[in-house]
């Protein structure tokens, strides 16, 4: 299935906004004003750029052959990657099978050639995560077209130790994970992980072409020190923009302790039990014209029960969050534009990245009537909007989102946010992000953390918590070595982060605007699937308390 009001001295303490709870809306509005102003500046300086695929002179001619060129992880003809270690890795790795690749394409021999379907097929293959780069080209051959599909496998088997650092919090574990099992595209993982919240055993299985069809199956089981969590789905997705129908069933079953945090420490603990089932179907409206419009319909069953919430380090109970039972029909609308850019140098240094420019948007709602569920009228809703532009070396991305429940007398747990990202694409340049989100009438179990994991890199992951947060990131980065031992590209970055959190139940938030600055190394793992980028960052917070080291494979932008 994440986004100044006063100047900040990076070497000293942040300026404080001293106010009571009545100022929370004012703080959110101030940050929102900055966000809207930034978005308007971006829109004013960028005319919408359409990357719709231009018509090809080959369009309409019959496809008479499809030829596959499948490359293993390492090019052993290159002296830099011809040693025994690289050859052994290639022998161990099973190259993605031609039959699997052929089944993913949106065209076959005998179909009329379509440049649109060629470009979308390449995106589908890249989105698998273990194929990059993917290039599909075509040329005239006799009275038809020959299509050449070139793929490069990334290393998909991961077995060993993982370790992540987020300030004083660590994540470690032992995992065996194959993202392309036997070259058939199936993913399987078994592992043990220790985090700053819990220890857990996890089993994960994804079959993207169940029984040779485009139906998909996903199952996940977690057995943790805090309880159990099971999740999964079976679905026939909207596989492409031309897909006319889709359906699915999803479930979540959980019986687990959860926490509220204050100043990077757990202060409240309580049980959260979830029983959630969704059955849904969808149809595309009309024909494909620069995208797809879809209607989604289904039925939601969701029970959230809370029990025995209590203070950890002091006596007394903490008020349990209110139980919720939602039962009723669900309906939604989605628009997905056929407007993409293939870029290098946005997040990763040397990998192809498909950037959706949109506009893409969706809105969904469930109606839980008084005669259903827990007897209260509840109408959960969620909506998202995404828009991007490309102008030369610069990429601009805007996102807006909102979710919550309509109940008497108004909206509950109403979460609204937005972000704007500006990035200079290439081997060096600037990147910036401004994000804000706020929750009105928040549910009792909800917190919005602000720390190193969310982008305020000079602080622990749960250093600050609230029902509202804002964050500004600015960094400059440069590629230093495009190839190191044939394994990764290496770059560096310098950055400044500014953040604010407010409205906490058990936490005072930031108490004002906070900041940090730092440096980092970026390693683009050019031959490893999915998690292409490792960030190792050293940040200094503005309170002079020392430094924080963060190591992660999560993207910030």
Concise structural overview:
Helix content is 9%, strand content 53%. With 557 residues, it is mainly β.
Topology (elements, then pairings):
Blueprint: H1 24-44, E1 63-71, H2 84-92, H3 98-104, H4 115-127, E2 131-141, E3 144-153, E4 157-166, E5 169-181, E6 186-194, E7 199-207, E8 216-224, E9 227-236, E10 245-262, E11 265-284, E12 291-311, E13 324-337, E14 340-343, E15 353-356, E16 360-366, E17 379-391, E18 394-407, E19 410-424, E20 428-440, E21 448-450, E22 464-466, E23 468-484, E24 488-502, E25 514-524, E26 533-541, E27 548-552
Parallel strand pairs: 1-3
Antiparallel strand pairs: 2-3, 4-5, 4-27, 5-6, 6-7, 7-8, 8-9, 9-10, 10-11, 11-12, 12-13, 13-16, 14-15, 16-17, 17-18, 18-19, 19-20, 20-23, 21-22, 23-24, 24-25, 25-26, 26-27
Write down the CATH topology of the largest domain.
Porin
CATH hierarchy: architecture of the largest domain: Beta Barrel
Beta strands, count? 27
CATH class group of the largest domain: Mainly Beta
What can you tell me about this protein's structure?
There is one protein chain. With 557 residues, the chain is mainly beta. It is built from four helices and 27 strands. The protein has helices at residues 24-44, 84-92, 98-104, 115-127; strands at residues 63-71, 131-141, 144-153, 157-166, 169-181, 186-194, 199-207, 216-224, 227-236, 245-262, 265-284, 291-311, 324-337, 340-343, 353-356, 360-366, 379-391, 394-407, 410-424, 428-440, 448-450, 464-466, 468-484, 488-502, 514-524, 533-541, 548-552. The strands form four sheets. It has a 20-stranded antiparallel β-barrel. The protein has a three-stranded mixed sheet with strand order 1-3-2, with helices on one face. The chain is globular. Residues 1-22 and 47-52 have low confidence and may be disordered.
């Amino acid at each position: 299935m994440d986004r100044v009001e006063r100047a900040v001295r990076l070497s000293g303490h942040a300026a404080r906004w001293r106010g009571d709870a009545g100022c929370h809306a004012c703080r959110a509005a101030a940050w929102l004003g900055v966000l809207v102003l930034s978005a308007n500046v971006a829109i004013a300086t960028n005319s919408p750029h359409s990357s719709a695929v231009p018509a090809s002179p080959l369009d309409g001619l019959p496809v008479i052959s499809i030829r596959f060129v499948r490359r293993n992880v390492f090019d052993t003809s290159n002296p830099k990657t011809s040693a025994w270690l690289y050859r052994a890795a290639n022998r161990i790795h099973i190259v993605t099978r031609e039959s699997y690749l052929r089944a993913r394409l949106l065209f076959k021999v005998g179909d009329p050639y379509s440049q649109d379907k060629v470009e979308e097929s390449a995106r589908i293959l890249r989105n698998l995560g273990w194929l990059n780069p993917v290039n599909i080209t075509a040329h005239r051959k006799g009275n038809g077209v020959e299509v050449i599909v070139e793929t490069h496998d990334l290393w998909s088997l991961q077995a060993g130790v993982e370790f992540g650092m987020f300030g004083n919090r660590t994540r470690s574990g032992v995992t065996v994970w194959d993202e392309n099992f036997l070259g058939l595209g199936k993913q399987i993982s078994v592992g043990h992980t220790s985090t700053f919240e819990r220890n857990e055993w996890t089993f994960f299985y994804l079959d993207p072409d169940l029984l040779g069809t485009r139906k998909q199956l996903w199952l996940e089981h977690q057995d943790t020190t805090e309880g159990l969590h099971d999740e999964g789905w079976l679905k026939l997705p909207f596989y492409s923009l031309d897909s006319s129908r889709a359906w699915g069933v999803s479930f979540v079953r959980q019986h687990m302790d959860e926490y509220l945090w204050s100043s990077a420490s757990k202060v409240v603990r309580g049980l959260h039990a979830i029983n959630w089932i969704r059955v849904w179907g969808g149809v595309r409206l009309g024909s494909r014209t620069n995208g797809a419009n879809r209607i989604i319909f289904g039925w939601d069953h969701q029970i959230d029960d809370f029990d025995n919430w209590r203070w950890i380090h002091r006596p007394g109970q903490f008020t349990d969050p209110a139980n919720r039972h939602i039962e009723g029909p669900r309906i939604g609308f989605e628009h997905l534009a056929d407007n993409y850019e293939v870029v290098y140098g946005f997040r990763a240094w040397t990998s192809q990245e498909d950037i959706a420019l949109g506009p893409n948007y969706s809105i969904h709602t469930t109606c839980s009537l008084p005669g259903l569920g827990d007897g209260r009228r509840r109408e959960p809703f969620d909506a998202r909007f995404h828009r991007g532009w490309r102008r030369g070396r610069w990429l601009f991305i805007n996102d807006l989102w909102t979710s919550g429940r309509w109940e008497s007398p108004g909206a509950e747990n109403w979460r609204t946010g937005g972000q704007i990202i500006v990035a200079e694409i290439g081997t060096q340049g600037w990147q910036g992000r401004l994000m804000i989100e706020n929750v009105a009438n928040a549910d009792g179990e909800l917190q919005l953390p602000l720390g190193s994991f969310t982008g305020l890199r000079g602080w622990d992951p749960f250093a600050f918590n609230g029902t509202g947060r804002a964050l500004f990131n600015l960094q400059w980065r440069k590629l230093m070595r495009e190839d190191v031992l044939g394994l990764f590209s290496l770059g560096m970055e310098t950055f400044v982060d500014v953040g604010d959190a407010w409205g906490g139940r058990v936490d005072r938030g930031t108490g004002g605007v906070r900041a940090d600055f730092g440096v980092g190394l970026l390693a683009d793992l050019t031959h490893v699937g999915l998690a292409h980028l490792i960030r190792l960052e050293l940040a200094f917070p503005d309170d002079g308390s020392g430094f924080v080291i963060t190591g992660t494979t999560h993207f910030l932008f």
